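Hey,
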Amino acid sequence: MPVSLRSRALRGVMLVCSLIWLTPAAELNAASLLTPGPAELIGKSTEPFGLPTTLLTNGGLHDKWLGVRRQLADELVRLALCDDDRESCRSPEALRFLAIIDAGRAREGRARLGEINRAVNLAIRPGSDLALYGEIDVWTAPLATLAKGAGDCEDYAIAKFVALREAGVAPEDLRIVILHDRLGGEDHAVVAARLDGRWLMLDNRRMAMIEDSGIRNFRPTFVIDQHGVSEYVGAAPVIEAAVRPTTQRD
């Protein structure tokens, strides 16, 4: 293998080992997710929604995320190899994902976040795990999702999380957040990206990005970042009104 290819493959492996990424689902069937294991208190921090968290070391969501990380280890190597020689790349989904990353890299700040949010939302059509895989609660890495062409909310979130990292967003400024819908009773996954000290939510249900302070009728329950899976601790803010997206299109 040429030196350049080896270096890119190594970069992919090192990247996945240095990150602890995400994933939850659009129609997240959370029966197994909401079973946290032993936790380590890390206290109040600058997390989205301003609530303290505990780092989980076991449990359904922790184990599910480990499975996604194993998928990512392979996909990031494939992505790096295709990035090095796109003309010879035989993975249409890798080329599509690289195009999304390129579009994000070409922009900065809020425009970068909005570009990737839109691109991923348009690249994947909504689909339930039951319809796509014949079972519930299946989490997939970006290339597998793009190959399928469909996914639910955690699949969108994982793809955005990886694309933003590859496009240059710092790991400390990215989260995957699982929210509980107080009205519908379901769980939902989004990406949170910090910009100028504020957390913006990237949601597969809308193109516009809104701040965490603008979220209504949802209670944050779990968050995933480079350190692992954490659970929110304490009462969430009282939220009564419907979600009100900003009028600006991102």
